[in-house]
Design goal:
Layout: H1 8-35, H2 39-44, H3 57-64, H4 67-98, H5 105-117, H6 122-131, H7 138-143, H8 149-161, H9 164-172, H10 177-185, H11 190-205, H12 209-214, H13 223-239, H14 243-287
Helix pairs in contact: 1-14, 3-14, 4-8, 4-11, 4-13, 8-11, 8-14, 9-10, 11-14, 13-14
Length: 290
């Protein structure tokens, strides 16, 4: 097999993509450098290539706070319970709305789309959780978020792109709707399944707003809310000191912020490469109706 020679257009694309990738990587690199730099180095330059006196003091201070471990525990609980519920509900609704013989399918789909523009608001949701005695528990955070309309539309379009003959053949063999969904549709939906699993995982990992509304016990705060409180407490501690100490404290807070950013994005960055192949295929197929 002959290899195609790269012409000038290919080289321009390679160089342009390389420059674009470099531009994307510069902020991440700066975040890592600030998180391991000393206060004096940060004062001298806000953009660091290589810190002169690297230190892990910011990470040490972050992990010495016991709240971060309870935050990881709460976030992992929300993720491991909430994400499967989201995926299950999304798939069931998408499958039902993709069936052409489903009665009232267009009306229900229109009502679902209506929620993308108009929502009930946080007050009715809070009153609902309070009436169910779910406030101050992780269940209020888990059950407050069921189906994302956009993700459901992606799954619906993907299922509609599959051949109808597969489902018709299964029905002739006596398979019911649940059998068709889990034995035929689900095995063929690995790309879009990986896509919405990643989407819901990121949503659940970054969960903080509903927790701030429904939960008052600090030992139940998720990771994002814990990191936010740690940074705010550090800033407040710097504000009550003298002017010079306050300046140093603010720079130390910047290192603490960058450590919080790293601890937030690192797990997602470790998972994404394993789902990238399915993610690209799923988002392309699910975004365009076949």
């Amino acid at each position: 097999m002959l290899k195609k020679k790269m012409d000038w257009v290919d080289w321009v694309c390679v160089i342009a993509l390389g420059v674009f990738a470099l531009i994307i990587m510069i902020p991440f690199f700066n975040v890592v450098m600030i998180s391991i730099t000393s206060q004096k180095d940060y004062l001298n330059s806000t953009f660091l290539v290589i810190p002169r006196h690297p230190t892990l003091q910011s990470f040490k201070r972050l992990f010495e706070d016991g709240r971060i471990w309870s935050g990881y525990k709460s976030t992992l609980t929300i993720l491991t319970i909430g994400m499967p519920i989201n995926v299950f509900l999304t798939y069931c609704m998408a499958y039902g709305l993709s069936r052409k013989g489903y009665p009232g399918r267009k009306i229900i789909f229109g009502l679902v789309l209506f929620t993308m523009i108009f929502q009930g608001g946080i007050v009715p949701l809070y009153l609902l959780m309070k009436s169910l005695n779910l406030t101050n528990s992780l269940w209020s955070v888990i059950l407050a978020y069921g189906v994302n309309t956009f993700y459901m539309i992606l799954v619906k379009n993907y299922i509609e792109s599959l051949p109808d003959s597969l489902m018709e053949s299964a029905k002739l063999d006596g398979a019911g709707e649940w059998m068709i969904l889990f034995k035929i549709i689900l095995p063929l939906s690995k790309p879009i399944l990986a896509t919405i699993v990643l989407f819901y995982s990121v949503d659940r990992w970054n969960e903080w707003y509903n927790s701030m509304i429904f939960i008052r016990k600090q030992n139940m705060f998720p990771l994002q809310l814990v990191l936010r409180n740690i940074v705010i407490n550090s800033e407040m501690a710097g504000n009550v000191t003298s002017a010079s100490a306050s300046m140093q404290g603010s720079q130390f807070t910047m290192g603490l912020k960058m450590c919080a950013v790293i601890m937030t994005m690192l797990p997602i960055m470790c998972v994404y490469p394993f789902l990238q192949k399915h993610f690209v295929k799923g988002i392309m197929v699910g975004a365009v109706k076949g």
